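Why do we care about 3D structure at all? Because function follows from shape, and shape follows, mostly, from sequence. That is the central idea of this module. The next example makes it concrete: a single protein chain, its amino acid sequence, and then its structure expressed as tokens.
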Amino acid sequence: MRAFHRRHLLVLAVLAAAVFALAHYYSSSRICRVNAAALATDNRPESGNSGGDSSSDALEIGGQKVVRLSRDASLAADTPEFISATILPGRGMNLFQITAKLPGKGIVPIFASPSLEEAAATLNGGPADVHGVKSFAFGGAFLAPYPNRIRGKLTPDGQNIVTQWHGKTLTLPAVWKGKTNPNAELHAIHGLILDRKTDDLKVQKTAGGETVTGVIHAGDFGGYWLSRTDLTITVSLNAKSVEAVITAKNVGTEAEPMAIGWHPYFAIPSGDRNQAHLRIPASDLAEVNNYDDVFPTGKLIPVKGTKYDFTEPGGKRLGDIFLDDNFSHLARADGKVTVDLTDPAANYGIHIEGLSNEIRTIQVYAPPDKPFAAIEEQFNFADPFSAVWGKMDTGMVTLSPGQSVSWKVRLELFTPTR
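And the structure:
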């Protein structure tokens, strides 16, 4: 009888353990699902991505699979750190999204971007996306062989503009114009790789993170450019920084102009753009004809004492100022030019560090009704071939056959001092 009682107790114990294990399993599964849902909500641009950097079921945009670099959080809870970077190889290696762990806020998007599914629907090569212009509507599009606007004589078919560089003719796609005036002047904008696929791609683990390198054998950029060019684009992720490097090499037989930049929309995590602060170490601003065309007049205006003076160490509150301006004569410290965007309400700050000497100007686009600031470190002034600049060096680098030039920018997080 005692033996039967012991066996009965043993069976009950086993059943209880099984019930406990099942309950724990389903509870853990539910927690995982809830956490995953929360992450998808906080980090919408990563939704739809499998999370693997070479997964066979990853979403395709521009005919190539999305790449996601990632790492696990490893720093103290009160220390911000980068977690992931999402790249679109099918759209000129567009650095579409970066996420970071922020103290007290969890994982948040650093760029203002839609979900990958929404991006795929927008970046469709349709009439509104001619030559890939929708690539610079969000995320962080890389721009080569020219950032910003270029004006010229419109061809009879209305498809291109014609301009001159050192006595040689350049015919560029006329893809942009002001939105307010229906008769606004068509012009070229933001380069020739916005919808370009990447020819060679490599993802590798690095100390504390991951790196992706893509090579675009751009040739003559579809017949629009002089000589032939190879572009090597690298994005590196670790806890402390995200770095992007673009190297352009002239692999052709004649000299060519070259300028590089990007178009990242830095999110303001709190959503309160009014109290965000911006610091730009620039002493001059390029005057423009209006904020619809945004064509430079060739005049540089000192910012000191004006509403465009963002040079103070802690920056200046954005308030309700509208910006679509090109800042120049940049002050460097330790060889780099650093722009700071600070969101005191979110206890968040980011350094945007230009590490290449060729970075001559910073274009900033920040409408007062949007919770972002597009901060574009680039080689050149807008409309660099224009006669309005006279004999001024407008930042276009001349590459002889065999020569290279690199653009390099580093992002670092910081916690602002209260």
